[in-house]
Amino acid sequence: MNKKIMQIIVISMFLFIAVGCDDDANNNAANNQNSEICDNNLDDDGDSEVDCDDADCVNDDACAVNNVNNNVNNQTIVTRKVDIVFVVDTSLSMAAHQVVLQNHIPDLVQVLGDVSGGLPDLHVGVITPDLGSAPYNIPGCETPGGDFGRFLKGTDNACANPVGQGFVVDVEPAGCMIEKSIIEGEPTTCTTHDCSQANCEVAAFTDLEGIASEPAGLILGIDENGCPRCRNYAEQTLETTLTCLMDQGTNGCGFEQPLEALKLAITGGVEENLFFLRADAYLAIVFVTDEDDCSVKQAELFNPQGDINSTLGTLTSFRCTEFGVVCDQDWVRVMPEGSAQYTGCVSRPANDPRSLLFPVSSYVSILQSLKAPGMVAATVIAGPTDGSLTVGLDANQNPTLEPSCDTMEMGAMPAVRLKDFVSQLGTDAETPEWAFHPVCDSDFSPALIGLATWIRDGVERTAP
User: Which pTM value belongs to this model?
Assistant: First the structure.
C-alpha cells in the first residue's frame, strides 16, 4: 500500500553511559601489590590472564567492558546509522582478491539502497592489516606502525573521493523535514523537503552537550530517489566511490594483523578516523584476506634471528600459526615424510603460555563493550577451515601451511583465528553461512549481501 510519511529529522543525540568501578574492588586492588594492571600487556598477578582477560579487570575503565550491555538493559537502539569497516589485505598475493571485492561492491550498495525509508546514514571506511614489524625491519614491513588502522583512500590515497576524511560519509540532513513515499518492494523516494546546506553543517549535527556526530565539510546533494543527503564525496556515485577505496594495492606487510588493525581503527584514537565510530550506530565489519590473523602481542615474533631448531624457528609466517593456533597434536618442524596433519585446531586461548598473539577473545570483548547485542556483525572472506591443517615444507625445508583453497589466480591459507573470531562474535546458536566465505571464490556476493541484509533487517526492525 502506498503511504507517505512526513519524517522530521531532529538534531542527533548521543546516549552517554557513565560506568563506574566497584569501590570494594578498587580498595582490594590498592591493597594488593600483585593485582592485575589492566592496560600494560603483562600478567602482573601471575594467573596466566593478561589485562582485560583477567577477571580482576572486568570493572576496570581501561578495558571498556564494564557490562555495557547490561547498562543499556539490552534494549534495541532505534537508529538508521550504520558504520561499515572493510579490512583489506594488501600483501603481494591479494591483487585478484581485491578485484573480486570491487566487482561485488554494487551488490552491497543495492541492498542498502533498498532499505525501507531510504539509504541508512552511512560511514564507510577501508583499513589494511599492515601494522609493520617494529622494532625489526622485515622486508615489506619497514614502516613503523604500518598503516596504523587509518582509513585510506585506495592505493597511495589516490581516490578522488571522499573529500576531507579517509572514510565516506553519506547521511540525511539534520533539522529539516523530508516527505517520503514508501512502497513495499520498491526503493523509497522523497517527494518534498525543506533541507538546505545549513542542515549539513556541523551545527546541525551537534547535540545539546556541544558534541558533533558528523565532520565538517559535508555538502548537500540529492540522490537518485530525490532524497537530500549530506556527503563528503562529489561527482561520483556511492558505488563508484566505494569501489575505488577497495583497491588498496599489494605492497603491504606479509605479517597481517587484521584484528589489531580493526581495534586501532575504532578505539586507537587515530586522528584521521575522528567522527567515524558513532555510539548509536550499527557496526558492520568485512575482512578480506588470504592469510590468518597474526595480531602480535610480543614483537619478538618478528625477530629475524633463528633457525628451525631455535625457540621461534625460522622467520616465516608459520610462526603466526605455531604461536597463535593450537591443535590436538603438538607442532613439529622437522618432518621426515615432508608433511604433517593436524586436527582440532583453534586459536590459542588467553591463558596459553606459548601464545605470542593477542587472544581472539580480547577483540570480541572490545566490540561487545562498544555495542549492545545485535548491533555488531562481521563477515570474514578468507581461507576456509574445518579445524584441520596440513603443514608441508617450503623450498628452504622450513614448515609452511598448505593452502585450504587454491585456484590458478587465487589461493589462501586456512584462517583459524578469524573463523574463531566471527564465531565468538555471533550471538546466534549457529554462525550464519554468510559470516565466513572462501576468498578463493570468484563471487563475494553471498558474504556482502548477507551482511547488508543483516543491516537492512536491523534498520527496518528499529525504524521509528
Answer: 0.85
